[in-house]
Structures are given as C-alpha cells and as structure tokens.
C-alpha cells in the first residue's frame, strides 16, 4: 500500500532543499552573471542574452532532475524506474509495451532496458510475460502497485512544480510554455536522433 501523500509536509522538504547547506555554502559554481562575464572575456563574439537563456535552462534542468530524484527516492524507486512507469502510463490502458519499444522510447540499449525491467519486476512494479498470440514476443505490463507509485510521484511533482512556477502569472506561464515548446521543436528538427542518451548510465 502507498502511504497517504502529505502536501504540507512535502512543502517543508522543499523549503529545506532551498536552504543553503554547509556544502552548498562552500560551492564554487559561479553565478550566471559571473559565468557569462567570464565567457565574454574569453570569447568576444558571445551573445550574453542567448547565453543567459541557455545557461539558465541547463542549470534549471540539472536542479529539477535532482529534486525529482529525491522525490522518487522517498517512494523507493529511481528516476530511471519512474521513466519506465511514465512510458507505460502514457501508452494508455492496458499499459503494456514490449521491451524493444520501451528501449526506443527511453533511448536505451536493449541490454540496459532488460536490466531495468529486471529490477522493476522484482519490486512488483511491472510484470513481464510472453505474448499469448506470439510466444517470441515479451510484454511488459504495469502492475497496480506500479500505477500507485506513478500516481504518488505525480502528486509530489505537482506540488514541486507549483512551487517552482508560483511567481509566474497564468499569462506568463502560457508565454513561457509556448517559447520553450518552440525551442524544443527546433532542437528536435535539428537533432531528430537525440531523444535518448549518449550512453547508458544505469
């Protein structure tokens, strides 16, 4: 059984995450302004406006991944396992896909996908069985426990994401969403094979 989600409790965790730790106090990562100034010093053709957007996106993505990883860790799973649950849910009921299709969607090698499914099957998040209509084909299916884990992660993520965007009005969120979508489409058009990873990390 999944524990009941406490949104107020998670907000406390978020506030603690935002407070500088002893390690963070000694961090040496420069501010965006410092980084851009250093780049301009070494590369005079740099457009500081472009660099600010790109660097902010990179840092935001890195910190969001850390936050999501902490969320899934409280549920006893990894970001990698969350990605599999998400792919199965997005596929629609009955939440079933072959390992090859999952590997393609997540940008993984078949070997890495098999390793990930092994772990998740052992944890009861998915089942893996032969297709009754094609015994050569294997089907990975989301379990009730796996779906409950996905729902709990979504509840936690929604709190974090609302906190993240709290300073933006509805119109600002709409404008930002459209702008980021345009950037994403441009990258997808230029790099159609870059939806996965350069290498498997797990």
Summarize the structure.
With 202 residues, the protein is mainly α.
Write the layout of secondary structure elements.
Layout: H1 7-18, H2 22-25, H3 32-42, H4 48-74, H5 79-91, E1 96-97, H6 99-106, H7 110-122, E2 126-131, E3 134-142, H8 144-164, H9 170-190
Antiparallel strand pairs: 1-3, 2-3
Helix pairs in contact: 1-8, 3-4, 4-8, 5-8, 6-7
Pfam families: MarR
Protein name: MarR family transcriptional regulator
InterPro entries: ArsR-like_HTH, HTH_MarR-typ, MarR/SlyA-like, Tscrpt_reg_HTH_AsnC-type_CS, WH-like_DNA-bd_sf, WH_DNA-bd_sf
Name its key features.
three-stranded antiparallel beta sheet; single chain; 202 residues; mainly alpha; 3 strands; disordered N terminus; 9 helices
How would you describe the overall organization of this protein?
The protein is mainly α and 202 residues long. The chain has 9 helices and 3 strands. It has helices spanning 7-18, 22-25, 32-42, 48-74, 79-91, 99-106, 110-122, 144-164, 170-190, and strands at residues 96-97, 126-131, 134-142. A 3-stranded antiparallel β-sheet has the order 1-3-2. It starts with 6 loop residues before the first helix and ends in a 12-residue tail after the last helix.
